[in-house]
Design brief:
Chain A: This is ABC transporter permease. Chain A: It is found in: Cell membrane; Membrane. The complex is a heterodimer of chains A (about 325) and B (about 400). In chain A, about 75% of the residues lie in helices and about 0% in strands. With about 325 residues, chain A is mostly helical. Chain A folds into 2 domains: about 80 residues, no CATH class; about 220 residues, MetI-like (MetI-like fold, Orthogonal Bundle), CATH 1.10.3720.10. The relative contact order of chain A is 0.14. Chain B is mainly α and about 400 residues long. Chain B has 2 domains: about 30 residues, no CATH class; about 280 residues, MetI-like (MetI-like fold, Orthogonal Bundle), CATH 1.10.3720. Chain B contains 17 helices and no strands. The two termini of chain B are about 40 Å apart. The chains are: A mainly alpha (about 325), B mainly alpha (about 400). Chains A and B meet through helix 1, helix 7, helix 8, helix 9 and helix 12 of A and helix 8, helix 9, helix 13, helix 15 and helix 17 of B.
């Protein structure tokens, strides 16, 4: 229980650090976002705007009132973000929360599906490879896995767009769903969502599963040589039981740690993938904001990506503790 | 199968395969031959830290010489006894060369993956240095517009929509990329190793503080963080800075993994001996702990190098990083945005060439990492050998961090 509390506390700390960091980036950098925003306001408003008006507009956009002392600015900024107010986007002229909020589920949909697919396919393939170790199948799959593992997701995405999107027109090349269909729990809508999500998900999953397969293969081969497996065979347990309860379980558990790192890379990679497929997720808006120098939107996007990722990793971590009794953490070690 | 398989000799990881390879055994790293080598092989001089001390003292003209004659009155205690055979300076140097350079090189060359990796990486290094002399600098209107790849000998990889030679663009992008890769990998590995060893070795409060910091860093999404920092800090296109920026929080994962390796080392006898002798923590970490982590560190250096390539090219492709020279990612960006390479087949080669360049380099680095793994760690080879009958001393070695890192490589 204390581990759970500690882990949750750590996640809150992460979010706190990131939000504080974003305040520092906006407010404290000389020649940074704050100066840029002010210069932009002066350019737009010309001489008709007084300094007070400019400061007011900046405060509305960034939640930072420049005239106040820094600690008051910091406190206001933090409370505003905690209450869900991320400022106003300059480019879209809307509250940041109302742009990015609806985009989060889509990004989570992409990354979670990709991660799940890559994990399931990779682990099963790796198990078969380990079982048929040394066969042609094993060698070919290892080769393919190595090449996929050395391919960035965006390369696959670009190939998908070029071939399946434009040349053969099997899949759409942009958007979350067909805008002619009304959103709702109807079969055509869900089908359209799947069709639009298929290529982004596939391009993230394809590059991921090579890595999973290779590490599952390695782990399985290692487990296959363990003593407890010999004992299990001597006890006359069924092959099925040995495969599932002994080999699979012990080979998959170490990979759970990798899952947490993978959540991070997949989430980060989604930024590039979403832009290639013009898929309006959080990463898409993040890049839009950067191109438009829309600092409030950019910071909001970054904070929300982090929060989503922190939640994902925390869940993965907590469930890991339940699956593997050895992963209790917090060992009382002697300190030197 | 063999009961001697896990004899202590196998713990001196980088010496065993080396010796076996010196003996001319081509399949050197098989653990059987490693441990068995002692009885059957030709006699080999033992080189270890202790032996060297003895030799230095026994060398002619050394001040230790006098000391020796003093105490050599017949009853030399075993602590003062010197080695009977001493090696000359050249002999020692040659032996060091064989042991540390030649033998690992042979092992690397023995493994087809590592060989491929070495060849690829060398090729890119040459491309980034000698290549600049051989290929003309890219400029617009070098040739006809949008020549396909492998059509003419003059422009082997084709030209862009503005008539720039694609091959020369690729070649002239290499130096910047190499600098970026090196700076990013060095930054991650140094910071990760220092944090990880310190946390794992010291334990207690140091450990919890350092690990909390790296846990926090680890949970911040790397690529978006890089993008935000690059925009807010308004850096110019200095490749060293960009390399560091791309790996800005990658050190945290490495620190965690290294920490768990250190945990298995910190209570080893020789570390405990150093501690009891009152040697300071920095010295213990530097001379007792880090050498044992070298295989792991070098592997991660290569992994990080690949991560930098993926990240840098991806962000250049998106157009969010500043640049002031040629770059593979910028080429891809231009191909897609200026010539519509994804929708028009005429410009597709413009996109494909940098893609292949990246994949081949990444593949080379991956295989090199696996090769490095083999050089340093005979167990890995044993594990992949066909008849693996492990006697199960692999707890700290196999699963956790190994699985984590190889899975993590699948990302982006």
């Amino acid at each position: 229980m204390s581990y759970v509390l500690k882990r949750i506390g750590q996640s809150i700390l992460t979010v706190f650090v990131v939000v504080s960091g974003s305040f520092g980036l906006i407010r404290l950098l000389p020649g940074g976002p704050m100066d840029y925003l002010r210069a932009q306001m002066i350019q737009q408003g010309g001489s008709s705007m007084t300094m007070a008006e400019i400061n007011q507009r900046i405060a509305a956009q960034t939640n930072i009132a420049v005239e106040e002392p820094v600690y008051v600015q910091y406190f206001d900024y933090m409370t505003a973000i905690l209450s869900g107010d991320f400022g106003r986007s300059i480019w879209f002229e809307q509250p940041v929360a109302s742009i990015i909020g609806p985009a989060i589920p889509w990004t989570v949909f992409l990354t979670a599906s990709a991660l799940f697919l890559a994990f399931v396919v990779g682990v099963s393939l790796g198990a078969v490879m380990a079982y048929k170790e040394g066969s042609t199948f094993d060698l070919t799959s290892t080769g393919v896995g190595l090449v996929l593992n050395s391919t960035p997701g965006y390369v696959v995405a670009l190939l998908f767009v070029a071939y399946l999107g434009y040349r053969y027109q099997i899949f759409p090349t942009g958007g979350r769903y067909n805008s002619a269909i009304d959103p709702g729990f109807s079969a055509p809508f869900l089908l359209s969502v799947l069709k639009h999500g298929a290529l982004p998900i596939a391009s993230m999953a394809v590059v991921g599963f090579g890595g999973w397969a290779l590490s599952m293969r390695g782990n399985s081969i290692r487990v296959l040589g363990e003593d407890y497996l010999r004992v299990a065979r001597l006890r006359g347990l069924s092959t099925r039981r040995i495969a599932l309860r002994y080999v699979a379980r012990n080979a998959i558990l170490p990979m759970y740690t990798g899952l947490m790192i993978a959540i991070g890379t997949v989430f980060g990679g989604a930024v590039i993938i979403e832009n290639i497929f013009a898929y309006p997720g959080v990463g898409f808006y993040l890049i839009t904001a950067i191109e438009a120098r829309d600092y409030p939107l950019m910071m909001g996007g970054f904070i929300l990506i982090t929060v989503a990722m922190v939640i994902g990793i925390t869940i993965a971590d907590l469930t890991y503790g339940m699956l593997d009794p050895r992963a209790k953490g917090g060992a009382s070690r002697e300190s030197y | 199968m063999s009961p001697t398989k896990d004899s202590p000799a196998r713990d001196d990881r980088d010496e065993d395969p080396a010796f076996a390879a010196i003996e001319g055994d081509d399949d050197a790293i098989d653990p059987e031959s490693v441990t068995g080598a002692g009885d059957s092989g030709p006699s080999r001089p033992a080189i270890s830290g202790h032996a060297r001390k003895g030799r230095v003292a026994a060398d002619d003209g050394e001040p230790g010489d006098g000391l020796r004659t003093d105490g050599a009155g017949g009853s030399v205690s075993e602590f003062e006894q010197m080695a009977d055979v001493s090696l000359s300076e050249t002999e020692r140097r040659r032996q060091w060369f064989e042991e540390k350079i030649l033998a690992p090189a042979r092992i690397v060359w023995d493994d087809w993956r590592a060989r491929f990796g070495v060849v690829v990486v060398t090729f890119y290094l040459l491309m980034g240095t000698v290549g600049l002399q051989l290929v003309a600098e890219p400029s617009p209107n070098q040739g006809p517009l949008l020549v396909g790849a492998f059509r003419t000998l003059q422009y082997p990889l084709g030209t862009t929509a503005s008539g720039t030679d694609i091959m020369s663009q690729i070649v002239y992008s290499t130096p910047t990329m190499l600098i970026m890769i090196t700076s990013g990998a060095v930054f991650t590995v140094v910071l990760g190793t220092v944090t990880g060893t310190l946390a794992g070795y010291k334990g207690g409060r140091t450990d919890s503080v350092l690990m909390t910091i790296s846990d926090v860093m680890m949970t911040i999404p790397g690529l978006p963080l890089t993008i935000v920092l690059a925009t807010a800090l308004s850096i110019n296109g200095n490749p060293v800075v960009i390399g560091v920026l791309i790996t800005v929080n990658a050190w945290a994962g490495l620190a965690r993994a290294i920490r768990s390796q250190v945990l298995t080392l910190r209570d080893a006898e020789y570390v405990e001996a150093s501690r009891i002798m009152g040697i300071g923590t920095p010295k213990i970490i530097a001379s007792d702990i880090i050498p044992n982590l070298m295989p792991y560190i070098s592997m991660n250096f290569v992994r990080q190098a690949r991560a930098v390539i993926f990240g840098a090219v991806g962000l250049y492709f998106l157009g969010v990083l500043p640049y002031n020279s040629n770059n593979w990612g910028v080429m891809m960006n231009a191909a897609v945005n200026r010539a519509g390479a994804t929708s028009s087949p005429a410009a597709f080669h413009w996109l494909l060439v940098p893609m292949v360049t990246i994949i081949v380099l990444a593949l080379g680095l991956t295989l090199l990492a696996q090769g490095a793994d083999r050089v340093f760690n005979p167990r890995v080879r044993a594990r992949h050998a066909k008849t693996v009958e492990d006697d199960g001393d692999e707890e700290g070695d196999g699963g956790g961090p190994g699985g984590a890192t190889s899975a993590a490589t699948g990302g982006i």
